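Quick review question:
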């Protein structure tokens, strides 16, 4: 299965597709949002992703305990206040999309309700992301699928049944290009709970392109995921964690994103394909394997003894496996010490 976003193919056989997640790392500033997009582009990301919602499309402004966050990175926040802090205003979207197009980097978004999808369609979004928390919102998935655009769906917190329902809904709605991202919805996610072995299982079970939405700190887990077949890597990105923001604590900085892009490319390049063909890089060293050499001068007609030959480097003579066959054979011409043993020197 192949997915194509803005002319770039994603899937098995193609380099990993690295998405820098802007999320709330604009810290309420349109200027910073544009700077972050430029920095992601310069760092080598293939795409940058934003999130399209308002506090009012996410939740309601309510002080009841149900709407309070207890524990974790955002402990003590009311849901409405957190989303108000983190939202990317709808009126910014056109300028953000225009700027990304000007730079030449792909930009798409995660919509959190139908109004967000409508806005993104007006702006010509080339693909859509479904967040882990919305993976059970089947009406939203159906609405996105009807656009016919590629969909990338995170699976954090989902049971097998919930993933199956989401995938079926997307496909029934018209989505033909679907990427499933293995995801641990913890911020940050502990490395020892990354559970990367689940990623290829998801791809095989649901017939989708595999990838990882990585909330661990650093880049190690993402690189390991590529070795296990990840075709898409998504990481939160910020210009500087020091500036603080809703998602800054588990976001990469520019030098880390550069390393991620390079290391995932290298990991993919290193995979190669199964087979016993000698790699080109080895060709120059074949001559330094062991082979059979004469280590004493001999006259034509002399019978070779074990003292006359040895298995040594370089590898320009007969292979060591022929040693016993050479012993006891007469040489047909004078031999000087340091001459490789060949069938020709033995008259064979």
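Suggested answer, residue by residue:
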């Amino acid at each position: 299965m192949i997915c194509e976003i803005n002319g770039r193919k994603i899937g098995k056989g193609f380099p990993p597709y690295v998405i820098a997640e802007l999320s709330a790392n604009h810290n309420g500033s349109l200027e910073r949002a544009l700077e972050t997009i430029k920095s992601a582009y310069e760092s080598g990301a293939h795409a940058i992703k934003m999130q399209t919602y308002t506090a009012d499309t996410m939740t309601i402004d309510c002080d009841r305990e149900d709407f309070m966050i207890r524990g974790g990175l955002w402990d003590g926040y009311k849901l409405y206040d957190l989303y108000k802090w983190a939202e990317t205003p709808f009126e910014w979207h056109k300028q953000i999309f225009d700027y990304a197009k000007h730079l030449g980097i792909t930009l798409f978004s995660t919509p959190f309700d139908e109004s967000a999808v409508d806005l993104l369609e007006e702006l010509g979004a080339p693909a859509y992301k479904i967040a882990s928390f919305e993976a059970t919102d089947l009406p939203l998935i159906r609405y996105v699928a009807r656009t016919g655009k590629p969909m990338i769906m995170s699976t954090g917190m989902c049971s097998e049944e919930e993933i199956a329902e989401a995938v079926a809904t997307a496909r029934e709605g018209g989505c033909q290009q679907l990427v499933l991202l293995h995801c641990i919805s913890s911020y940050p996610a502990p490395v020892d709970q990354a559970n990367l072995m689940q990623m290829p299982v998801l791809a095989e079970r649901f017939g989708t392109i595999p990838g990882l939405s990585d909330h661990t700190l650093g880049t190690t887990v993402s690189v390991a995921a590529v070795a296990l077949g990840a075709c898409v890597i998504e990481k939160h990105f910020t210009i500087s964690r020091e500036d603080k923001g809703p998602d800054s604590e588990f976001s990469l900085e520019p030098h880390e994103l550069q390393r991620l892009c390079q290391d995932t490319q290298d990991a993919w390049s290193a995979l190669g394909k199964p087979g016993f063909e000698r790699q080109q890089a080895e060709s120059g060293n074949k001559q330094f394997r062991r082979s059979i050499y004469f280590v004493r001068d001999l006259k034509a007609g002399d019978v070779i003894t074990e003292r006359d030959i040895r298995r040594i480097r370089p590898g320009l003579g007969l292979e060591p496996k022929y040693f016993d066959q050479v012993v006891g054979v007469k040489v047909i011409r004078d031999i000087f010490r340091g001459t490789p043993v060949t069938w020709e020197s033995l008259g064979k």
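Why it works: The two ends are 55 Å apart (CA to CA). The chain has a mean pLDDT of 96.
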